Amino acid sequence: MATSIGYSQVYNDAAKISDSTDYYLEIGLFNKEDKKSYNKAILFTEKAIEYAKKNSLNNKLADCYLQLGNIYYDLEKNDLAIDYFIRAVNLFNKKEPKTNLALSYYGLGKCYLKKDNIQVAEIYFEKAASLYEELNFLEAIELINLQKGIIKKEKKNYIAATETLKSVIENLTDDTFLTTKTEAYIQLGEIELIQKRYSAAINYFNLANTTNSSNKTDFELTKRILKQLSIAYEKTNNTNQSLLYLKKYTHLTDSISSHLYSYESENMINKIQFDEQLRTIEQLDKDKKSQQKTLRFSKLISILSIALISILSLLSLSLYKNNKIRTSTNKLLKDKNKELTIEKERAELASKARADFLSTVSHELRTPLNAINGITYLLLQEKPKASQLNYLKSLEFSGNYLLNFINDILEINRLESDKVIVEKINFNLKELIENITISFKEFIHENNIKCHLKIDESITTNLKGDPTKLSQIVINLLNNAIKFSKNGDVWFTIKKQHEDSNVIKLYFEIKDNGIGIPLDKQDAIFDSFSQGSVEINRTYGGTGLGLSIVKKILELMGSTIHLKSESGKGSTFSFELEFEKGVKSEIKPEVKPTIENLTEKIVLLVEDNKINQMITQKMLEKKGISCIIIDNGEEAIENAKTNHYDLILMDVHLPGINGTEATTEIRKFNTTTPIVALTAISLNENKEMLLSYGMNEVITKPFEPEHFYNVVIDYLTNTELSNS
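Given the sequence above, the corresponding structure tokens read:
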């Protein structure tokens, strides 16, 4: 539904080459726009990003993210494009109007329009239009107006859409924007076609065809015009004209026929060359015949001529049959490709429906689960009777179990989508592993496990990779080993396999002497919700998602999980990972925030759920923090204008104006008060997106009390955080 028209026409902020970043950006843009080589475009743009990061060139890094977002948009990877456009927006200096910041907003609008999220698309198009007005870039504003016209058309507001599109056509006088004007004519024709005004539709499509006549490269736009003209003439029962434009459309799209014509042309050239050689032979024969007039030599010449004619006839017949077989094969391939495309679309729709269902269910469960865990925490803090303590502990365990289950479902959905990015940051491997094993201390004690940890002592350097995903892998594998090896042993070994000046390759192995896995179950054990048998699930519990998550994360990191196991004799899981060498970083002692003056602090809580209001207020009051509650975004904006608060806790999903819109409005007159988002975050949300609206931090529901207090106290006691 969205269109990329006009992007290259206004993309000019990064055109001046002054260093390596600009050089790689320009090569990437050349490969994208001129050569249509997207792999090379991505490669050179990523080189530009690497150079910009290395030299702390934030403005140019923003230009790199913008270009990468545009490449992924052209490849129809909308979620990746959104991620990079948001990164670009966060880096651009918003106090200084800039065309590339406007282009980032414009790109976000196009992405959300493609995802049929019209409301969010309109917000970003308005932001882009405002910037272009400040820059007095009137031609670029018409690109935004074109998108607005398309949105109105999608909303079936045809009168308003027609007015907007006609205005775009009238205001575009520069010939460099002919493609944009062509698109406006096509959209007007489609509106008339929907309303069954076929003559008017034909008129607009003809205007589009005339305007596009000088465009020799955009075949997709030409195809759209020809197809719509064929449909419009068919509606008026003008069969001849309809057939004429349908033939033109077919001629343009039939790439296989083009290859066939090329093949026949090559054969014709070969035939001409062959005939030329044949005439040369005949001339030689005539010369010989004139020199030798005997009957025997004459017969020999005749036999040779017949042989040559026979060979030529056989060659012609072979070419005819070959072309006939090729035509039949191409038709069969077209039919099969069409069937495969339909099946692929069905599979993608089914996968999307499954992911959306699981995401929605998981998201909706978080709000009541927040109430269960919150009330349980509050009751446990009020010194319950001994007879009540067991019930509350059981309730706390059940709530945490359900939360882990929901988190696993969301993690599987996230890994199956195209939204996961593997980070490369500096971390200390030994420190990471030691922290993980300490977190298992109580679980190891409960199951009476002897845990043997061995890390190769020659691993002395820090590593550069994704410590979060490595932690997920190790935690899931250790959890299984401890759970299924009660009263047994668990061995965790890390060995160095290879090392050079820049890269180190490590081998990870987690071994236990527990119940083991039968051979016939080992292939299925990595599938989602699989645990070997119903008896194992009833005895040991769990979601059956841990190993599936491990497998998918390792695939993202370019590795594979290996399993050796025998029923009753334990299991060994192993994998290999390659890391770049990191730099040693000084370990700074953690400074705990002081909580001496919390009684003087006032927090504004914007939350519409009554139970969540009560829980959050009680938790704040336990630390002596005053709390004002408002249940909607409109009142929160007005209240924040006239009152001072030390912190605002903002629920994202509010009736009317939601939390992100309310935050945007508050930031227009208040840029210092910290705003922390409270959300049961889903697959369609991410922390970077929420922070782009002006929020300082995100707390996920149901929140852990310790994490909640740490964030709140940090922002109430640290002036640097409050002003950031």
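Confidence is low (pLDDT under 50) at residues 1-10, 12-16, 259-274. Try to locate this feature in the token string yourself.
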